[in-house]
Amino acid sequence: MASFFDEIARNRLKSIILMLLFGVLFTFIIFFVVLLLGGGIAGLFVGAALVLLYALFVYFTGDKLVLKMSHAKEADKNDYSVLYGIVEGITSAALLPMPKVYIIDDPNPNAFATGRNKKISAIAVTTGLLSMMNKREIEGVIAHETSHISNNDIQFMMIAVIFAGAIGIAAAFIRTMFFFGGMPIGGRGRGNSGIILLIGLIVGLLAPLFAMLIRLAISRRREYMADANGARLIRDPQGLASALKKIQAYTAKPAARPVKNANEISAPLYFSNPLNGKSVSNLFSTHPPIDERIKRLESMY
Q1: Is 88 considered catalytic here?
Q2: How many other CB atoms are there within 10 angstroms of residue 31's CB atom?
Q3: Which residue would you say has higher pLDDT here, 1 or 110?
Q4: Which tops the pLDDT comparison, 287 or 50?
Q5: pTM of the model
Q6: How many domains does the chain have?
Q7: Of the listed 7, 145, 223, 298, which one is catalytic?
Q8: Would you say 93 and 149 are in contact if contact means Cβ atoms under 8 Å apart?
Q9: DSSP conformation letters of 198-224
Q10: Which of 180, 166, 199, 202 is nearest to 48 (CA)?
């Protein structure tokens, strides 16, 4: 059996290692774009400035965009007094400011947390979750989402999205140059232009795949960590495990539907896979297998 703290520490370390890999991949592809363009140091600064502007845009608008595309509406405190009470109690126990509470009109039982930081955050839950779960299970889900806020996952995943997006844009640029515009290799690279062109094609095709795999792996690690920290927060891993069992039963039904307005961008934020994704491999899943999450929770003390 593992303690809450062992599980949290193990997943935090793995998340950091994965983010370092992201940074290495990001640095390599930006350097390679600059090499192809012959931009030298000036090109690196221009590339860094563009990425910074992109990062600032995502940071200040990302949470609003996610809530808007999810069709989430701020919950009325009188209509959802029980939910407000649960969120208020758990965030208070976590020593966090009260987040905004949103409702998504969808029968799929799910929830997510978003925001810029611990002071500006939001928790959204679906009507399906509220109708299907008892109070103990809702507390488990809210504790999990509160842990995402407490663990800085909302910033962590935003950074991952920024890295993945920047890598995707750079790779698309390389592919466009290769297939349509040619590659103006400058400086010392001219002597090895054939090799550099081959590397450029490989980078342009494979870098987005590697970026996606790393981002998904980070998402799965943060889910395990939020499970462990959420269970620790309310001292009830069984309540969270019970919520996952109900979601598992729901998704197994032939009539089960994915969350209507979820997509590949917002999917990693949700408590469980909102797309009801039947991935060919766990490598391409936004979330760990529910069976494994339940197993870990039931083994905690």
Answers
A1: no
A2: 13
A3: 110
A4: 287
A5: 0.77
A6: 1
A7: 145
A8: no
A9: HHHHHHHHHHHHHHHHHHHHHHHHHHH
A10: 166
